[in-house]
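Follow-up to my earlier ticket, as requested here are the two runs.
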Amino acid sequence: MRPEPPAGAAREAQEPARLGSQTLFRGLDVIELVAEGPITLGDLADRLGLTRSTTHRLASALADRRYLTFVPRSGYSLGPKLLELGFRVRDELDLPRVAGPQLERLALLTEDTVHLGVLDRGQVLYLDKIAGKRRINISSRVGELQPVSSTGLGKALILDHDEESWANFFRSENGGQRTPNALQEWLTRMRSYAQSGYAFDLEENEDQVRCVAAPIRDVAGNITAAISVSSAAQYMNDQRMQTLTKDVVETARRISEELGWTGTPTPAVGAGGGARPVALGSGGARPTALGTAGGTRAAAAATVTPSSPVSTGTRKARGGGRRRKSGKAKSR
């Protein structure tokens, strides 16, 4: 048998690795602190709890590799190398791949069909679909295009748009096939959805199929995609739809974080031109300053429920829309 090295020798061999890891983590700490804004060497050393000489050595090494830049009398700021890497990460992010594990988790949790979609030339493009375990068939396919105004995904994708944009989607997809009050009823629902951070499809796009949808945000806080949970109406009563909002919004939040979103509110154009904070909630209401055509709404939003007056209008006004015919969501 080979003799064991002395204990002291083993510790000495591990020491360089330990010191190397420590230096790496300190360098990362420097980058994260500088990311908060330009900072002088003295303030950086104080924040890190290190000596000025050690801090200067770390910052100088990062500046040499272009991770930091140094401006006299101003201090250190982030360097162009991080911008290059950031764009490379953004280009390499594949949305279905990033979202996949969360979609699988949501499908397993709900036992229903889960969709991922994006806005593509004014329509909803389905990027991914995970079939549920129930004995029904949701007639959607990856790669197909669907209307915006009648699908849960579509409504979730345009929650940050202003009311003029909402109305344009509705008119272009429905034309004169709806009653005179249908547009106003739909806009009322959209305002409620925008306040709550999720949207419903109450058999508007496909007979006997309902869904709950929520938006996915990118690093800038913009809606870049949406997810939905769909099932036959018999499995989607009003109470269950309301309960599902929590899981759907939470899943959308997790995917958003994978894309770099931190939850920091960013200004977005609201209805009537007002600005409102953008933030994914936990399924309930979220604060907003979204204006309406007749003025500004209260900042505290009411929770949207499928059976509320603003939602039941869907069933009454959907007579001539572009819904799919009944029988598409059939038992397998």
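Run two:
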Amino acid sequence: MSHRDAGDIVMKLTLLIFLIIVLVSVPATSGYALEQLIIAASPSLRLAVEALGRQFEATHPDVRVRLHLDSGLDLRRTIAGMENSTKGYFIGSGPIHLVAPGGDELITRLEQKYYVLPGTSRAYAEERLVLVVPESLVEAPTSFAALKTDVKLRIAIGDHEKTTLGQKTKQLLTALATWDDIQGRLDEAADTRSVVDHVLNGQADVGILFGPDAARENQRLRIVAEADRRLVAPVVHSMAMERYCPNRALCGEFLEFIQSAESQSALKSLGYASPIPDRSQPQH
């Protein structure tokens, strides 16, 4: 058996097991089967996509939204393996409806390979940098500018060479002409979890995180400032229709829904910012 044949069999078994789990986990209601809407998503976006799914189900009682979670690289391999399968999926016959990877880089690559339908990508959430302090701190800074002026502040940041958080943080502080002035007060942590720990255990006075990570710690951390997206580009999350989506009309409805005011409000409560332009504000 060739490596290609073996890989094809593994891919078929993976998809078959996944679909069986999905189908047996949802009972029929009132005598009819519920339609499944399958979203292949990054684990980092689970809470966001689950929240969107619950809202969509509330207005579509005959639909159940189910997630297939895979990291970015594995997600790409899963979709590529399905697309290249000798089974030969055709329009409307695929097992996956939508793709929601973490960040837009993978969406762009999938579009280039025609694994998702070009023109269907919809941005629905942004992760912006925020400044956080312990919830119990009374006299807290109120802006990123204070990091330069208050020379007593110790600042926890992510590793600026190895993490996206650290790289974005350096970009922001450089744009604010602050990076060089605070080198002696930086507490560089290995990852997001470590930044949180350093702030909570007193190793640092403030920390810089992405909004959703700060929101998950809202019982212990308080957000005191949000970075201007014009100073550092946020991490944008989009969703797109898989090439062989089994119900394009339903996929289109969901993609329109994720940009609605209702959806954006739910995502905001999870610490995400909206990528949808505010048309009530003057455009420059």
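The only thing I checked on run two: Residues 39 and 67 are 5 Å apart (CA to CA). Let me know what else you need.
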